[in-house]
Every structure is written in structure tokens, then in C-alpha cells.
Amino acid sequence: MSSMNKNTVGRRTLSIAMLLLGTLAVIASLYLDAIKSGAGYRGALLIIGAVVILCGLYFYPTIMKHRAIINFIFLFPLLFAFVVTVIIPMILGIFYSFTDWNGVKFSKFVGFSNYSTMFKDPAFIWSILLTVLFVVVNMILVNVIGFLLALLCTNKLKGTGFFRAAYFLPNLIGGIVLGYIWQFIFSNVLVKMFSMKYSLLADTNTAFLAIIIVYVWQYAGYIMLIYITGLTTIPGDVLEAAAIDGANATTTLFRIKIPMIASTITICTFLTLTSAFKQFDVNMALTNGTGSMKFMGSVLSNGTQMLALNIYSTAISRSNYALGQAKAVLFFIILAAVSIIQVRISNSREVEL
Amino acid sequence: MKRALALTMAALTGASLLAVGAPATTAKAAGTEIRFLNNKVEIDEGLKKLAAAYEKETGVKVTIESLGGGVNTQSTLKGYYQAGNMPDIFVFEGDKDISTWDGLMVDMSDQDWVKDTDAAYTYNGGVYGFPITTEAIGLAYNKAVLDKAGIDPKSITGPESMKAAFETLDSKKDELGITAVVGYYTEPSALWWSTGQHMFASYLDEGLARDDSTYIDMMNADGGPTFDDKRMKDWATMVSLFNQYADQDNLISGTYDQQILNFASGKYAFVTQGSWIGSTIMNDDKDAYDAAGDFEIGMIPYAFEEGQDTILTNTPNWYGIYKDSPNVEAAEAFLNWCASNDGGQKYLVEDCGCVSPFKSCTYVADDPFAQTIIDYANAGKTSAWHWLGMPEGIGQNATGVVFNDFAKGTYDVDGFVAQLQQSIKDYYASKSTGS
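Predict the joint structure of the above. Result:
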């Protein structure tokens, strides 16, 4: 008992010393940065200080709070990364959307004028409509095709392993690379094969179709893999019981398999919904958003430009970072709202089952 | 035991952080190193030779950082600025970028090299940009094919002679071994700059004196853009001639690589690109060019009205010095050295293929277009690039697709002119309201 006590005192001293030392190091490094000293060791000092503080916390002799402290220490790296890469940029982004920021500096606050401008811009409204259309079409197509492929690959046919790998493979190729490969196929191979006048990508309507084809091709394999996992978790005895009761393949599918994988369907719908909403790389590589389109009384040049790409091109190629930020804030709100609603609906349906 | 382990871990983490963090930061503190940000990957190797020579001569290390391959240099630079990681010398593209960097660049008016060139970038009475090369926009031709067809490029002086030459070439396609008369490509997602900026540039400047800014001034007028309808129609008639005699397989969706490769392989008599294709032909497409017999290449004006006899030459981008850099003086000294004939000019011209904008330079590049540009410049037959004064992104976001639609046959000449003017007006309007 007495040795424990001595140990505790020792630990307390050590812990407090480390906390003090760490705080000192952090303050010193921040001070060095604030006065722009340029000293090469300031970054290291900051991190060592932070690590020492965490060690101090770890050694702090308390039974009551120990678990909480450990939880905090283990969560800290994740929380820190989340705050630095998501929370802070989001707050800054919202802030910038009320200014005339050009990526380097801003001269004044403009209130809501960025927000009012973007809703008066036919090109942006077109991008929103196009994105919604794209999301709806893809959510259905990717899920249906992915599910059919999954049924095919869970059959007792020969070579299903090969087909699983083959269907999944496109998902392993990066979107930009894949976009350029398909651009070559559309512009050179298909044109010659069917002796078309010009590429599918050259016309706005067919270019949209082309983007859908490539997206489904890329994503269906991934969704298939999730459905396969779902289908293989259906207990064999249930299927056997159904078979004994005389259920044919169609009945088994609709009455047993689909209800049994309702949670998988939720996950897949959610995944395709958000990823189609965020579609960027294939869109950029295939058409870069170009395509002429008559809309709201003016001829647009961004016929195939989806929301994410519109935000990017507003900020980068049009060099209007503040407006881009305003659009990004709206994008975030839409995406968050859609995701929350979707999860709610799916959850309630699962409970009913 | 547990404590000892934890302490060791902490110490190790700290030590490894120190080890990782130290070299990058100490190098910055040394102070005699200049960081140079370039946006042309194709001259990266030449610039590194130049930097090595400078280090040998003066002991000052110059780090060349080249961005390219579709990277948007200016947005990368903005990121560098936000991160406090600005290079000492960086590239910018003239009028369209000046508002971003206004107040952040060093005024170089007092530098020696300024007296030796007309191509320095000036703004509000100060000199902010160092030029390294001159590029030309015009109708590039394959001399061997024209000779074989019996056409003298100098005889093409206006729309009639251009049309006649195109017809002759078209009728002898098989005999000449060409697939099309002109390599004109309009694909809007990646080649918008070729049509929306460079092809349009000939409307703005063809045949004008270097300081004549009539047509860009009409576009940038306070009350919204206006145009010279007759001039634009003449110009659009030339574009429709290109549409008609272009390589129909690639007119709508061909790529830059295909365009240059086909020209280098001798498949087109003309190509609607600028002098920068010289380095592509001499490097990437060297094999095809050799196989086609290393034909002589020249350039004629886009003469859409009789008597227009200038090609459009300009410095495409300039190098500025970051004001808050700790190495401003070293950077100024370096640029001065680059401008001198005994110093950097040798490397810029011979290794980077630049056409020197400095009068004292005696080197001539081994580039197919170098001599042509020098000849036009000496004869005083060059116009400027006033298209640089158009709002940022207009080719990519507004006019590029109009050229593409014109090529697809959506419009006739009048329809094309009307739509082009409308698209430009819309873009200006959206720019002024901020969208």
C-alpha cells in the first residue's frame, strides 16, 4: 500500500511537470511563429510539446477520470485531424463566402450577394438540375445492375470468382485515368466502329449518357461486392425452408432475399446517392463540363457540368473563390440534408421489417 | 516498466519528428537559395542547366520548380501563398493575373535588363514581369507540301488567295500524301484555348500595329462588349473555311497530341497552332517528324482581309519577384544574369528553345519557328496579343463550345458571329455581377 502511495506521489509530480513543460513548449513555439522568427525547430517544438502534454495526462494519478483521459488520448489524433481538415476549413469557407475573396486576399464583406448571384446564374441552376437528374438515374441504374451482377456471382456457376474480380476491377482504376481511357474509346474507337459523324462526347445529350455509362461501369462492381456480402449472409436454412415450402426462384428473391438484405440496400442506396452527388473526376476527365445547351433564354457552355465541377471551375478557372465557396456551402447543405433524410427513411423501413 | 516504455515512445516520436522536420526548415533559413516557379514542364531540363551554371558562377543555388501537365499554376500559387510557401520568383500570365498579385510583387523598373527589352510586363508605371520568350500565333505550314503543290506561302495574302490555295491542296490530297488541308481542332473541353483564345486573337489583332488596341477596347468598353461586325464576319468566314477543309475525323473531338503528331507526320499542309508546337515537334514527335523528312516549317498570317501581313507575337507569361521574399536582391541579381548575353541567354535560347525578347541576345534557337519569328519581328510585321486582356476563363467557359458547335454545323457564318457575340456579352455580364 505504502509503495503504491509513493508511486502515486511520484507519478503526480511527473505528470504535473510534464504538463507544465508541454504547455510551455507549445506556447513557446506559438510565440516563435507569431513573431515570424523562422526558427527551424519551432514545428518540432510544438509537436513535442503536444506529445508531452498527452503523456502528462496519461500519467495523471486518478482512478475516477482515468478512463475518460484514456478515451480522450486515443481519440485525440482522429479528432485533431478531423478539426484541422474538416471543421476549420468549413468555418473558414463559410466565412469566405461572405467576402470578395480571390484566393489570396479579400477587400470587403459583401453580405449575401454571392448567394443571390449564384441563384440568378442559369449555368449554376442548370448544374443543380443536371446533378439531381444524374443522381436519380445513377442511384437506380447502379443499384439494379449491381444487384443483378451480385445475383449472377452468387450463383453456383463456374468461374464466379473470376467474374467477381472482373466486375470489381474498374473500381480500382482512378476516376481521372478511367475518364481519359473512356474519352479515347468514345472519341476514337466507337466513332470508327459505328462510323458516327462525331463522338458521343461532342453533343450535350449523348455526352450525359456517356458519363452515366462510365459511372455505372465504374461503380456497379463495387456495389455488387456489397450485395454479394449481403446475399451470402442470408442463412441457408431459411432458403432451404422456402424451397421445401415450394417457393420458386422469383418468390425466393422477392419474399426472402430482398427483405433479408434490406440493410445492405440501405447502405448501397446511401453510397450511390452521395457518391453520385459528389461526382467530379469522371465528369472532369470526360467532358470537363463542356457542352452547349439552351436554357432559361441563354446558350450555356456548361451543358454537362455537374455541381462539384461547377464549384471547382467557378473558383479555379473563373478565379472567383468567394462565389465558389458560397456554392460549396449550398452543396454541403444539400448533401447533408439528403443524406439525413435518406438514412431516416431507410432506418424506419428496417424497423418495420 | 509501462512508464519507461511510454517515455521511450514519447522520446522516439519527438526525435523522429525533429529528424523529419529539421532539414526542410533549416534549408529555408540559410537564405542564399532562390526558388523559381516555372509553368512550362518542357523547359524544366533547360532551366535546371541554367541554374547549375548560375550556381557554379556565383555560388547561389537556384531551385527550379516546374508545374505543368494540366496543373492550374495560378491556383497552386494561391495555395502556396496561403501556406506561407511562396517561391521567390514565380510565373504569372499578365493582365488576367495582375489583380491577384498586385501589391505583392517587386517593382523592377530600376533593373538593368529593363532597358534591353520591349517585352517587360508593366503595370501602373512599374515593371513587374521578366519575359523569357516570345511566342507567335499564325497559320503554321509545311513547306515541303506547299512546294510540291506549287504554292508559294507568300502568295497567300488574303481570303481569296487562301481559299484558292486550300482548294488546290484539297484537289491534290492523294498526290501530296496529306489527309486534310488544315489541322484545325475545336474540341472544347481541352482545346478551348486554341479556339477561344488564339483563333479569336486574330480577330482582335490581325494586321494591327503592336500598340493598336481598337478591338479589345471595344470589347472591354464600360457599357459592355461591342464588336466590329464586318471584321468579325470576315474572320468568321476564314474559320468556316478551316471547318470545311479540316480533318473531319478530328475536327470535333481530336486532341492536341493528335493535332501536332499529324502535322509533324506531314498529314496536314497547315495547322492552326502557334510557335510552341515547335518544341513538341522536336521532342515528343521527333520520330514522326524525322520519318516525314524533317520538312521546313513556317508561318503565315491569318489573313482574313486582304493585306493583313502580321503574325501575332508576344511574351506569353512573365516572371515576378515576391515582395516579402527574404531573397529579393538575390532574385533580382539572378534575373539580371538571365537577361545577359554572357549569362543565362545561352541556356534559355539553346536549351529551352526560347526566342529571346532581349535585344542584346545573339543566340538563335534550334526551333523550327525561331527564325520565322525573328524574320517577322525584324520586318516590323508583328501584332500584339491583346487577347490576354480578355476576362479570365472566357475561352473555357463561354466561347470554346461556340467554335465547336460551328464546326458541328449548328450555325452558319452569321449564326456563329451572332452566337459568339452573345456568349461574350453574357460572360462579361456574369463577370461584372460576380458569377
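Chain A has two domains: 2-110, 115-352.
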